[in-house]
Amino acid sequence: MALVAGVDSSTQACKVVVRDAETGRLVREGRASHPEGTEVDPEAWWTALETALDQAGGLDDVEALSVGGQQHGMVCLDEDGRVVRPALLWNDTRSAGAATDLIAELGHGDAARGRQAWADAVGLVPVASFTVTKLRWLARAEPERAARVAAVCLPHDWLTWRLAGTGRLEDLVTDRGDASGTGYWSPATESYRTDLLELGFGRSLVLPRVLGPAERAGQVAGGRTLLGPGTGDNAAAALGVGAQVGDVVLSLGTSGVVSTVSTTPAADPSGIVAGFADATGHFLPLVVTLNAARVLDATARLLGVDHDVLSRLALSAPEGSGGLVLVPYLEGERTPDKPWSTGAVHGLTLATSDPAHLARAAVEGLLCGLADGLDAIRSTGSEARRVLLVGGAARSEAVRRLAPAVLGVPVLVPPPGEYVADGAARQAAWVLGGGEAAPEWPASETQSYDAPATPDVRARYAEVRDLTAARLEPSA
After folding, report:
1. Is 459 exposed, middle or buried (0-12, 13-18, 19+ CB in 10 A)?
2. What whole-number percentage of the chain has pLDDT above 70?
3. What does the alpha-carbon distance between residue 98 and residue 365 come to, in Å, rounded to a whole number?
4. Could you write out the DSSP letters of every residue in 445-458?
């Protein structure tokens, strides 16, 4: 029995699964936490990976391994391969001003023209999440550190490179799925746009070589375990859940992610849809919100209840929460691009001033924001036949039962799993098999949910979603 390992190096933790390469059967697993915050020393990821691998029984009998990682994080290395500064993560919003500047600059002072130019070039419009904006922030805010940077890579790239152990910058590799979230790689042309990198940072840098979906990236130092190219977490999750063309994957974790597998690249000048690539050779048009599962965490904390009670409260309240709407921009927001916004509650009356109405408003508000994202993906021409609901908040019965009504399509919920790590393991098995075809592992049993659409809930949310306060923008 050949074994393969998949790694999910997420914002919050590192998870490792070891699976049978032929059947996908889970053999063992491990986990270790990551530090909190929006900037992290990459060595913390490496320490967590070592711990999680040890918990999962090590790699002595593992034939191949791939890493799925949080997207966009900026890992800067000097000419000797040392990390220059803590990595800025996807949810660090300090480069929001840099994003605005880059749009204007590519449009020669015209923001609309700039958005179109970025979308045409790389399938996305800069927001604070994307790596190119973080590089601009670094060049302007920390010029001494910026001067030391020789190479830039992403979290999964860096971990794969560390596993290979060569220490040479020229051995950095990535894949098309993760590269497509940098702002300087084009899914349409499958090539780097070094001119946009230079626009962002001011000069050229060593960039990881982009590997094909099942191309070998080398092997683990001191062992025989093959390394796959790895990919970004969203592409890995789509591979792990077995998403097909027309399937929408809605992931409710730290962020909320709406993505669909498509045969054509997307280019949305509004910037709502990011035209990413996937891990199979197709494309993954995607919308991300900063606020997802933690909206439910915050509401449960506010009400002094656990998540099961929160769910029961939400289901006990009427559809539409009696007009009460929670706009869930608790940490600013990426989609829509409101990095300095705050959350808001509208429609508070004597009749809606109770835990049940607030609980339902939280669930409906969370889902309405994601439904807006699904509408945006449809507007680019992508199909949306059904939704596969995954992530921590998918465990909520209220989320499951209300999702098809708010989203307007049937919802399937696979059993809870580590779908990013599973997708990475499936990629590893693909590499081990010589790259002919991704292995067909048996699909997990799913629960199906369907309900009539609730357009009134969406309409009420639309009336108030932009009536949000804003924090003062911090200085650079």
Report:
1. exposed
2. 98
3. 29
4. P-EEE-----HHHH
Which range among 71-75, 83-87, 241-245, 363-367 shows the weakest confidence by mean pLDDT?
Answer: 241-245
Cα 88 to Cα 92: distance, rounded to the nearest angstrom? 6
DSSP label at residue 61:
T
CA distance from start to end of the chain: 54
| Alpha-carbon distances, residue 135 vs 138, 169, 318 (angstroms) | 5, 18, 47
CA atoms of 292 and 289, how far apart (whole Å): 7
For 412, phi and psi rounded to 5 degrees? Answer: -110, 135
Give the Å distances, CA to CA, from 269 to 71, 119, 273, 374.
21, 5, 8, 16
Average pLDDT over residues 284-292: 91
Find, among 211, 126, 125, the residue nearest to 161 by Cα: 211
Q: Compute the residue count for the chain.
A: 476
93 in Cβ contact with 128 (< 8 Å): yes
pLDDT average, residue stretch 124-147: 97
Q: Report which residue type is found at 26.
A: L
Contact 213, 430 (CB under 8 A): yes
- 284 forms beta bridges with 276
Q: What is the pLDDT of residue 474?
A: 57
The encoded tokens of residue 179 equal: 């590269």
Q: Report pLDDT for 472.
A: 55
pLDDT above 90 for 443: no
The partner residues of 277 in beta bridges, in order of sequence, read 283
Q: What is the DSSP annotation of 228-289? A: ---EEHHHHHHHHTT--BTEEEEEESSSEEEEEBBSS----TTSSSEEEE-SSSSEEEEEEE
The rounded distance, in Å, linking the Cα atoms of 57 and 364 is: 42
Catalytic sites, residue numbers: 233
Residues of the chain with pLDDT > 90: what percent? Answer: 86
pLDDT higher than 50, residue 420: yes
Beta strands in 70-106 (DSSP E): 75-77, 87-88
Give the rounded distance of the alpha carbon of 418 from its chain centre: 14
| pLDDT on residue 476 | 46
Beta strand 256-260 pairing with 247-252: antiparallel
